[in-house]
Write a structure and sequence with these properties.
Layout: H1 3-8, H2 10-19, H3 29-42, H4 46-60, H5 71-79, H6 84-95, H7 99-104, H8 108-116, E1 124-128, E2 147-152, H9 155-166, E3 175-180, E4 192-198, H10 209-217, E5 221-229, H11 240-255, E6 260-264, E7 267-273
Parallel strand pairs: 1-2, 1-4, 2-3, 4-5
Antiparallel strand pairs: 5-7, 6-7
C-alpha cells in the first residue's frame, strides 16, 4: 500500500498509529486490524476509534505485562546458564513479570500434575494465548523429544520464548515452535495430545456460548485444559468463579463433554477429553 493510500484509509491509518507506540508495536497486525475495524464501525470519530482500540488491546493483552521486558538481556542470561536447576531459577524469575504466570508460579508443580494427569504420556502440547507459559515447560513433564507449539499476539514475546526454550539444557528441551497470530476467531489446526487454553476464553470477543462452542470444536487435540481467573488482576473477588463456571458448564453440555474440575490459587480449571 502506498503512503498516500494509508492516509486515505482510516483503518490503515489507525493500525499505523497504534503500531507507532512502543507498547503496541509488536502486536500482530491482524489483531489490530480486527479490533480497529470494529471500533471504527461503532465510534463517531476516527480519534475515538483509535483510543478505544488502544483500550481494547490493553484489556486483552497489555494489562498482563508491566512494560516491555528486556528480552535480549534475558536471553543472554539463559544462553550462559548450563546448570538445569539454575536455569529453572532464572525461568521462575522471568515468569514473575507476567501477571498470569506470576499467579500460577507458587502452585506450578501441582497445577501441571493435576492438569495433565488424565492425558497420560504427553508428547505434544498446543498452547493458545500462551503468554509466558512456555517458560513453564520444565514443569509440564513433556516427554523427551516432545513437541510444543505456542501462540500469542506479541512478535517480540514469541521470538524470545522460542529462543529461550531452544537455550534450555538438552534434558529439558522440546521441539518448540512459536507463532504471533490471532487465534481468537479460529484456533490453530495442529494435532496434539493436549491443548492448553489457560485464561484465554474470557478474552475472546465471543458474544454467546455458540461462538465458544464452535471455537472449541475446531481444536484437533485429544484433551483440552481450559482455565478461568477467579479474581481480578488486582486480587478482588467479584464472583468471577461462579460466573465463568456457570457459563462454561453450558458450553460443556452443548459439546457433550465431561470435565474434571479443580481450583488452584486464583485459577479455576477444567480438563476434558475431546470427543
Amino acid at each position: 500500500m502506498r503512503n498516500s493510500d494509508a492516509i486515505d484509509d482510516p483503518l490503515a491509518r489507525l493500525v499505523a498509529s497504534v503500531h507507532n507506540s512502543a507498547r503496541h508495536r509488536s502486536i500482530c497486525r491482524e489483531v489490530v486490524e480486527r479490533v480497529g475495524a470494529i471500533e471504527l464501525g461503532k465510534r463517531k470519530s476516527w480519534k475515538e476509534a483509535e483510543n478505544e482500540t488502544r483500550k481494547h488491546l490493553h484489556r486483552i493483552c497489555g494489562s498482563y505485562l508491566d512494560g516491555v521486558p528486556p528480552y535480549d538481556q534475558w536471553l543472554a542470561i539463559l544462553e550462559s546458564e548450563a546448570d538445569p536447576e539454575a536455569f529453572r531459577s532464572q525461568l521462575r524469575r522471568m515468569m514473575l513479570c507476567h501477571a498470569s504466570t506470576r499467579e500460577r508460579l507458587p502452585f506450578i508443580e501441582e497445577f501441571y500434575s493435576r492438569a495433565l494427569q488424565s492425558v497420560g504420556a504427553v508428547r505434544s502440547i498446543l498452547d493458545i494465548g500462551c503468554g509466558f507459559n512456555p517458560l513453564s515447560i520444565p514443569w509440564m513433564n513433556l516427554e523427551c523429544e516432545g513437541a510444543y507449539e505456542g501462540y500469542d499476539i506479541f512478535s517480540d514475546m514469541t521470538g524470545f520464548l522460542e529462543a529461550a526454550i531452544q537455550a534450555m539444557p538438552d534434558s529439558m528441551r522440546p521441539d518448540i515452535r512459536m507463532f504471533d497470530r490471532d487465534a481468537s476467531i479460529i484456533p490453530p489446526a495442529t494435532a496434539a495430545d493436549v491443548a492448553l487454553v489457560l485464561k484465554f476464553l474470557p478474552l475472546l470477543d465471543h458474544k454467546n456460548g455458540e461462538q465458544t462452542l464452535s471455537w472449541l470444536r475446531q481444536l484437533n487435540t485429544r484433551y483440552v485444559v481450559v482455565s478461568f481467573p477467579t479474581r481480578t488482576l488486582g486480587g478482588r473477588n467479584v464472583g468471577m468463579a461462579r460466573y465463568y463456571e456457570a457459563r462454561y458448564h453450558e458450553v460443556l453440555e452443548m459439546l457433550g463433554w465431561s470435565a474434571e474440575r479443580f481450583e488452584i490459587g486464583n485459577e479455576l480449571c477444567f480438563v476434558s477429553e475431546v470427543r
